[in-house]
Design brief:
Length: 223
Amino acid sequence: MGFTQGTIDFLFENRLHDSREWFGEHKQDYKALVTEPLGELVTELAPIMAKIDKMIICDPKRISRIYRDARYAKDSVFRDEVWYTFARERPNAWAGHPGYYFSVGAGGISYGCGYYCADGSVKEALRRMIIEDNPVYTAAYEALRGQRTFKMYGELYKKNHFPEQPAEKCEWLNRKEYGVSFFTNDPAVMFSDKLIQKVGRDFRKVAPFYDFCMRAHELAEQT
């Protein structure tokens, strides 16, 4: 099945109309163009995710809602993107274990790995592992250095908080959040019948980074 230009067009037009009535009239389009191909991707990636972490949940029923949370979005009803988070069970959508994600939106697709919002104890554990050259960090560093798909996200502090550390470590130590992401709006990638295979290969490439985040999570829980 896969994504098509119709997927992108629907997400753009639905957000443009921003109308429950319009969405209701085109709900079958939403299913056929957005949730079904995304659900297929989730299902097809399940064996790969199980090899990375057998506790990662792959269930198409957990695809994000296209409706915005009315408590925080007073001026709009719909998002222009839908995503799936590949992670262990979490207490809520924004907290808990790190994970992988895949998102399709009006502007293109993106996917990656890391934390959406790591708490202070996790960041402290991550930074301690970096400073101490923990082998899990070293493996993550080498995995990212050896690929060209993903870029680290997370705003850097304006001031270097670790001036005594090497420059390559400061790029990691001074991040407010920890994760890697890839974005494209290239139709040759988005609509390829090999997209799922590409995502799976890319997720495997950065599995050491996922392990790094998970180890920090475990260390934080022990403190």
